Amino acid sequence: MEKSRIGAAFMALFFGAFGVHKFYLRDTGAGIFYIALLFFSIRILGMPISGLLGLFDAIRLFSMSEEDFDAKYNRPTNRRRHLERRREYRGKSTQKRRDMNMERKKYQYNRTTSKNRDNPFKRSGQKKYKDYDLEGALEDYNKALEISPDDKDIYFDLAVVYSLMEDADKGYECLERAVNLGFKDTKRILEYDDLAYLRIQEEFETFKNNGFQRTKDKKALPMEDLLKDDLLLSQLNKLKDLRSRGLLSEKEFVHEKEKLFRK
Question: b/e for 251-262, b at 16 or more Cβ within 10 A?
Answer without folding.
Answer: eebeebbeeeee
